[in-house]
Amino acid sequence: MGENVQTRIKNLLAKKTVGSLVQVAGWIRTRRDTGGFSFLEVNDGSCLANIQVIADGSLANYEAEIRKLSAGCSVMVEGTLQASPAKGQDVEILAAEVVVVGWADPEHYPLQKKRHSFEFLREISHLRPRTNALGAVARVRSRMSYAVHTFFQERGFCQVHTPIITTSDCEGAGEMFQLTAMETSLKGEEAGPQDFFGRKAGLTVSGQLQAEVYALALGNVYTFGPTFRAENSNTSRHLAEFWMIEPEMAFCDLRGNMRIAEDLLKYLLNDVITHCPDDMDLFDRFIEKGLLAKLRGVMEQDFAHITYTEAVDRLLQAQKKFEFQVRWGVDLQSEHERYLTEEVFLRPLIVTDYPATIKPFYMRVNDDGRTVAAMDILVPGIGEIIGGSQREERLDVLTARMATAGINTADYAWYLDLRRYGTVPHAGFGLGFERLIQFVSGMANIRETIPFPRTPGFAPC
């Protein structure tokens, strides 16, 4: 049909062409009959608002079809665009023809005109994008994906497609989904699992290591793709499959890394508020009260800075009881991160210089020998949203750290070569896309931020 309803109607209004013949196609949200005609609320998914269609009783299929339409039915409508006397809408369509494309039995169609819980909607993930809230999430997710690419492309970054199947464990925590192939004998009997690639391989937990390869050839690069974690975390903040934004910058230190990360976050928030106002207003009114004010607070303030050691000192002095004990050398928990952003600094916070013992092998060791040049960006309401570091560019230090971590350096010979041949300071970070969507939408559970959530014991569609 070309342009979606929202774009087409806006263009017609801009040209002051009320009275024009228009065509729309979409799904019925509701039907109301009165005085020999029906009001049909039609939505094509392009925006939050429906378009009201007036179907007169004189239409040829009025009694046989139009009066039987119910939520979920799909229709194609042709009619005249006219000014609407009703509140909340500028125009409506006086139908000349309503073609029923597909029926939805009202006795079995699970989406009725009432509010459904998100838990229920997860059980029908193939239908939940037809709801207002999940449709809004999908549109916001699409817009933010576009904005991610725009941000990096405008700044000269080159996108790199890193492998989904990898032989390297970036985090070194053994949380990869291992891949095997079942071979069969000539008799058709299973011969057991085989290493398809001739060595152990798994689904990637990060594209960072491979992105470093291209950063040390092209300068500034980024990867934006799916990643996987085989950890049994059945929480509102974890997914087994999720998308990661991972830029990698050559000739860049931790300070430059923090600047790009802060700029990216502010750019994305500004873009979605500007281009998805109706969807963001829905989230602000029905999902999280005060959401827009919170997001604008992130956009309009400089981020605070504090070292990990200073953060631990602040937490130890807090007149508050935490569920998890605070001490130097232990990673900060969500409750600690939220306390710092929501009760101490009252704005986004960048924590730097974490203990080397709790961070991956590739992070650059600071001069004190105890900490690494790492940074986490914490935001109110969610805690950590970005994590990154300056990478260890010194071959001897990197080799020693890998040995301490029990990593077989022979498996990472290619990674060490990057330090042998023309090494340079470089840095990067990771931004979990679903965590970002959760922050932007105010959704309490991260499973509402991705079309088809994968969690322990749950993989619909």
3D architecture notes:
This protein has 461 residues and is of the alpha+beta class. It folds into two domains: 5-113, Nucleic acid-binding proteins (OB fold (Dihydrolipoamide Acetyltransferase, E2P)), CATH 2.40.50.140; 128-448, 2-Layer Sandwich (BirA Bifunctional Protein, domain 2). Helices cover 30% and strands 26% of the residues. It contains twelve helices and 18 strands. The two termini are 28 Å apart. The model has no long low-confidence stretch (mean pLDDT 92).
Top keywords for this entry?
five-stranded mixed β-barrel; 2 domains; BirA Bifunctional Protein, domain 2; 12 helices; alpha+beta; single chain; OB fold (Dihydrolipoamide Acetyltransferase, E2P); elongated; 461 residues; eight-stranded mixed β-sheet; 30% helix
Describe, in short, the structure shown.
This protein is α+β, with helices and mostly antiparallel strands and 461 residues long. It is built from twelve helices and 18 strands. It has two domains: 5-113, Nucleic acid-binding proteins (OB fold (Dihydrolipoamide Acetyltransferase, E2P)), CATH 2.40.50.140; 128-448, BirA Bifunctional Protein, domain 2, CATH 3.30.930.
What layout of secondary structure does this protein have?
Blueprint (H helix, E strand, L loop, with lengths): L4 H10 L6 E14 L2 E7 L7 E6 L17 E10 L7 E12 L15 H5 L9 H23 L3 E2 L5 E2 L11 E2 L1 E4 L5 E5 L6 E3 L4 H11 L1 E9 L12 E10 L3 H22 L1 H11 L3 H10 L3 E4 H10 L16 H11 L4 E7 L15 E9 L3 E8 L4 H10 L8 H8 L5 E7 H9 L20
Helix pairs in contact: 3-5, 3-6, 5-7
